[in-house]
Design a protein that fits this description.
single chain; alpha+beta; six-stranded mixed sheet; binds zinc ion
C-alpha cells in the first residue's frame, strides 16, 4: 500500500496544474480540488484530455516555470507494450523492463535542446503492466464489468531543472514514435512564460515548438 501511495500523491500537483490550461477541464479541475484529499487513488480520473483510455492515443502535459520543467505522461499501456495486464511470460517481462527503462530516462526521448542543460530531479512512474503495481482500469467501478477487464494505463511524471531554460525551444518525440509503433498520436499541452501551446504529435509530426 505504502509503496504506491507515495507516487500517487506526487502526481497530484501535476494533475492539478495540467487541468488549468484547458477550459473544457474546468469541471474536472474543480472536482480534483474538492476531493483530492479523499480520493488520492482516483487522480487518474481527472487527468488530462482523453481520460477515455483510447488505444493508440496518449497525452503529455508540460509546464515551464522559471528553470523548472514539469511533465506528465498518461497512456494506455498497450501503446508501449502491446498488452495491459501484469507481465507474465519472460517475453512480457522483458518488454515491461524495456518500457520501464524508457520511462525512467525521459531525457532520451523528449528531444530537449542539449544547451538547456536539463536534468531530472524527481520522477514517478506507475503501471501494473510494467510491474509497478498501481490499480488499473479493472478497479474503476463506474464502468460495466465487461468494459473494465484488462485495461490499464502507464503514468509517468517528471520534474526537471534546466540550467538555461531560455534554450528550450520545444519537444521532439520522433525517437519515441519510432520505437513504439503502438503510439499513434500524443496530445501535448504546454504552458510556459509566453503562454500556452497545444498540438497533436504523430510519427510524421513529432515536434512541438514552445
Ligand atoms: Zn486498454
Amino acid at each position: 500500500m505504502r509503496a504506491y501511495l507515495l507516487p500517487c500523491l506526487l502526481l497530484l500537483p501535476l494533475t492539478a496544474f495540467a487541468a488549468d490550461d484547458h477550459d473544457h477541464h474546468a469541471h474536472d479541475h474543480a472536482h480534483s480540488h474538492e476531493h483530492a484529499h479523499e480520493h488520492e487513488h482516483e487522480h487518474e480520473h481527472e487527468h488530462g484530455a482523453l481520460g477515455a483510455h483510447e488505444h493508440g492515443a496518449a497525452e503529455l502535459d508540460v509546464a515551464l516555470e522559471n528553470n523548472e520543467l514539469t511533465l506528465a505522461l498518461d497512456s494506455p499501456a498497450v501503446n508501449f507494450l502491446g498488452f495491459e495486464h501484469a507481465p507474465g511470460t519472460p517475453e512480457e517481462q522483458g518488454k515491461a523492463a524495456d518500457v520501464r527503462m524508457m520511462l525512467e530516462r525521459p531525457l532520451e526521448w523528449l528531444g530537449l535542446a542539449e544547451a538547456a542543460g536539463c536534468e531530472v530531479i524527481e520522477q514517478s512512474i506507475q503501471g501494473q503492466a510494467i510491474g509497478l503495481g498501481h490499480p488499473g482500469y479493472g478497479e474503476r467501478s463506474a464502468q460495466p464489468a465487461a468494459e473494465q477487464d484488462g485495461h490499464s494505463d502507464l503514468e509517468a511524471s517528471y520534474r526537471l531543472k534546466c540550467q538555461a531554460p531560455d534554450a528550450l525551444d520545444g519537444l521532439d518525440l520522433r525517437a519515441l514514435f519510432a520505437k513504439y509503433s503502438g503510439l499513434e498520436r500524443l496530445q501535448v499541452q504546454f504552458v510556459g512564460p509566453d503562454g500556452q501551446a497545444g498540438a497533436e504529435l504523430t510519427p510524421s509530426q513529432p515536434r512541438l515548438s514552445f
